[in-house]
Amino acid sequence: MRTTSGDFRSRLRIPPPPINDLILAVVLTAASFLFILLAGPEILGGAVRSPDWLNLSLAALTTLPVALRRRWPFVVLVLTGLPEALAAALGYNAGLGAAGALVLLYTVAAYRGLALSLAAAAVCSVGYVTGVLLASRPMSWMDHVVTAVLIVLCWVVGRSVRLRRAYLAELTQRADRLERAREADTRAARAEERSRIARELHDVVAHHVSVMTVQASAARRMLDTDPGVARDALTAIEEMGRTAMAEMRSIVGVLRTDGPAEREPQPGMHDLPTLVEQMREAGLSIQLWIEGETPVLPPGVDLAAYRLVQEALTNSLRHAGPAARAWVTVRQEPGELMVHVEDDGRGAAAELVKNGAGSGHGLVGIRERVALYGGVLRIGPRDGGGFEVRARFPLKDRT
């Protein structure tokens, strides 16, 4: 119960006004007192009552509340108009209550919305008209013009400050949004680079390890009967391992550089004869046809087509069987590159795709590469038995 009452009192507690507003209110009140005590009828241009404690109290009520101008500016503006009107009705000198009202008008215009600032301007205008009607001396037209100009000027300056503050806040928010967008783009670029490196690593490791496994199996079988063949197979494994390490070192080296990485040339379609020869040494019978002129491909399409052939031949080596044959056809047509890899094996790869087990990183990587460049891909059983991978890459006119 004590805790609840303490929380209630803390919510009712009003924080102290800022020190600069408090100083402004005290200075304005002191100047108002001096003006009341020193200004006589010859200065005011009319008969006024002699200052007394009531006069000073009413003057203080029109200026001291300025200290609360940032918390309740409009409410304070309305409330300070009452003692000022009462002082004018009693024939007292209201002091600098009008200056306090202008300060409050500026505050409302600078820290509140348009509707409330217009209402504050109307309150000041009504307060001035009321003071004129209750004043003991007539007002000249110059007094009216000066007062109107001051009211409009305070309102315009306050609105300008508010609009400028809003503009600066919008610029800050826009800069924050641009910074967040730049960070998001950076994260997306890093994620894309990691995905690219993962695909490259998978293709390199899957191909070379599959070939090395086949060569090791052949070396094991021929070790006792034909050591020369086993020696050749082990030599091929050694060379394949060195090649795999060199490619992996080139790919992973991108991750070890803070600045732009200097990438070594990636393999492309011009390396197909070397790839086919490696697969033949591993025991897969392959025929390669390149129809049409040797295409000058964009680097991305060149690498994607090469990796597609590499992955397809690796799957044929692993799943097609020892007596299988494979055919690789590369044909450049007007505005299109066609890559076709097929084998006449026992169809184990086709069964993997049919049963859903072939949806691993290899086939997913092929689909991603082909889709990245707007190509069309078909993976599945081949008519007459076996398995095929067929892709078409669109080529832009490079004239």
Automatic annotation (TrEMBL):
Q: Top EC class per UniProt?
A: transferase
Record's superkingdom? Answer: Bacteria
Per UniProt, which keywords does this protein have?
Answer: ATP-binding, Kinase, Membrane, Nucleotide-binding, Phosphoprotein, Transferase, Transmembrane, Transmembrane helix, Two-component regulatory system
Nucleotide-binding: present as a keyword of the record? yes
Indicate whether Cytoplasm appears among the record's keywords. Answer: no
Tell me the ranges covered by the Histidine kinase domain, including all copies.
307-397
Q: What's an example GO cellular component term for this entry? A: membrane
Q: Which GO terms describe its molecular function?
A: ATP binding; phosphorelay sensor kinase activity; protein dimerization activity
Q: What is this protein called?
A: histidine kinase
Q: Which organism is it from?
A: Planotetraspora thailandica
